[in-house]
UniProtKB/TrEMBL annotation:
Residues 20-66 form the Ribosomal RNA small subunit methyltransferase E PUA-like domain. It is found in: Cytoplasm. The lineage of its organism: Bacteria, Bacillati, Bacillota, Clostridia, Peptostreptococcales. One of its GO terms (molecular function) is methyltransferase activity. InterPro entries: Alpha/beta_knot_MTases (IPR029028), PUA-like_sf (IPR015947), RsmE (IPR006700), RsmE_MTase_dom (IPR046886), RsmE_PUA-like (IPR046887), tRNA_m1G_MTases_N (IPR029026). Residues 75-243 form the Ribosomal RNA small subunit methyltransferase E methyltransferase domain. It is an enzyme of class 2 (transferase). Keywords: Cytoplasm, Methyltransferase, rRNA processing, S-adenosyl-L-methionine, Transferase. This is Ribosomal RNA small subunit methyltransferase E. Transmembrane segments: none annotated. The keyword rRNA-binding does not apply. The keyword Cytoplasm applies. It catalyses: uridine(1498) in 16S rRNA + S-adenosyl-L-methionine = N(3)-methyluridine(1498) in 16S rRNA + S-adenosyl-L-homocysteine + H(+). Specifically methylates the N3 position of the uracil ring of uridine 1498 (m3U1498) in 16S rRNA. Acts on the fully assembled 30S ribosomal subunit.
Length: 253
């Protein structure tokens, strides 16, 4: 069943109706060719998901009647934020798409000393962020997520360190780390029961020594991902997968 996200304000519990607006209207009528009587999944992106039956379709709106309502049960018990060094070309698209499928909560694009991509101005940042957010939305629909991950505006490494203070644990993948691994870190009783984790991945070329030192000073825990060096578009996905398997919901219970 096809899944769509709407704002909570578009759901009328009193009349048992849901309104779909915007680009999804064209997708429903012209691409999927759905019609009156067909059912779709609707999620408010916060707490609830619904089965809605199409009542009517016009040029700008799709009206649904609520058939079923239930709480969102598709999100992991741990909230993970990816601090991703902005990579070249379209690698960020892949990173957003795949980590959204895996259950990421937020993605913070980070410009570092070795970041090649340059943002010309705030308008350029906003345009790219808007595009990335749309990729996250489409991936969330496809994977039947309960929320759409938030894609932040690109920020500097220093600003990212400040943002990361909200997390209970921050894990930095560092290719020169030889002793500490993810498994031993997650088994440490000190981090038992953590609910908010930040994972940090540098761009092509990795983090500079200065950035690693600054990160460690601010409490980031550096780990190795094993004997092989992973590409920046692979590292975050691999790290997220391992955490989700160990303390999330990947693989079931």
């Amino acid at each position: 069943m096809n899944r769509f996200f709407v704002e909570a304000s578009q759901i009328n519990e009193a009349t048992k109706e849901i309104l779909i607006e915007g680009e999804d209207v064209k997708h429903i009528s012209k691409v999927l060719r759905l019609s009156e009587g067909d059912n779709v999944e609707i999620c408010d992106g916060i707490s609830y998901e619904y089965i809605g039956r199409i009542k009517s379709i016009d040029k700008n709106n799709v009206f649904l009647s609520i058939v079923e309502k239930k709480g969102v049960e598709r999100e992991a018990p741990v909230k993970i934020t990816l601090y991703q060094g902005v990579p070249k070309a379209t690698k960020m698209d892949i990173i957003i798409q795949k980590t959204t499928e895996m259950g990421i909560a937020e993605i913070v694009p980070v410009t570092t000393q070795r970041t090649v991509v340059q943002f010309h101005n705030d308008k350029d940042r906003e345009k790219k962020t808007e595009r990335w957010q749309k990729i996250a939305q489409e991936a969330a629909k496809q994977s039947k997520r309960g929320i759409i991950p938030k894609i932040h505006m690109p920020i500097s490494f220093g600003e990212a360190l400040e943002h990361g203070l909200k997390n209970q644990l921050n894990i930095m993948a560092y290719e020169l780390e030889e002793e500490k691994g993810l498994k031993s870190l997650l088994l440490d009783e000190k981090y038992s029961g953590v609910k908010e984790i930040g994972i940090w991945v540098g761009p092509e070329g990795g983090y500079s020594e200065t950035e690693v030192a600054d990160g460690l000073k601010e409490g980031l825990k550096s780990i190795t991902l094993g004997p092989r060096i992973l590409r920046t578009e692979t590292a975050g996905f691999a790290l997220l997968s391992m955490i989700m398997y160990e303390i999330g919901d990947l693989g079931g219970f």
